[in-house]
Amino acid sequence: MSGKPKLHYCNARGRMETIRWLLAAAGVEFEECFLETKDDLTKLQKDGSLMFQQVPMVEIDGMKMVQSRAIANYIATKYNLYGKDLKERALIDMYVEAIIDLNELLMTHTFQPADKKEQHLATIVDKATNRYFPVFEKVLKDHGQDFLVGNKFSRADVQLLETLLMAEECKSDILAKFPLLQSFKARISNIPSMKKFLQPGSQRKPPLQEKDIPKLMKIFH
Questions:
Q1: Whole-prediction pTM
Q2: Which residues does the chain have with pLDDT short of 70?
Q3: d(CA 171, CA 188)
Q4: Are residues 47 and 118 in the same domain?
Q5: In a domain, 202, yes or no
């Protein structure tokens, strides 16, 4: 199992998308093996590829890794996106866990029933603009540096950029009151590996559409 990492998931963002972002940030080429049917998932489960019977699964360095946080931690450590010492790593972890909390809200928006969508969007906007974004705006203001931790590009920057762009897909002016986050978004988007990943035709996945939900439900349920 050498060569490029191989990502096993459906052809959608979900819990694999951050892993795609981190590999792209590190400049690592990867292959994708898409689950198209329930049978594809069942085959992986039956051949022992999935430790806990679920995807995402990434084949990397002779391992078949599962659990999205464990995979992301491994990639961030391997490709030097995880700070220079234990304290920086702790700070990155705190930021990342908060980003994941917001990301989970954003990911589930498309799955909301029609009569709940408006309230769900209001919850996203409230938590983003009152709980999460003010913290990152203050971090950038207080240390006056280009990156969130140690003035060095890390997974925290990658995952915040991913989530900022997802938030803007839900509400285009959601960053209006956060000038430093707007600058951060532009700056990180222009890092060569990130710029490449944000171009059309990359392995970045588009937002999930409601018409795609039935196909996903058939694979996973």
A1: 0.96
A2: 1-2
A3: 20
A4: no
A5: no
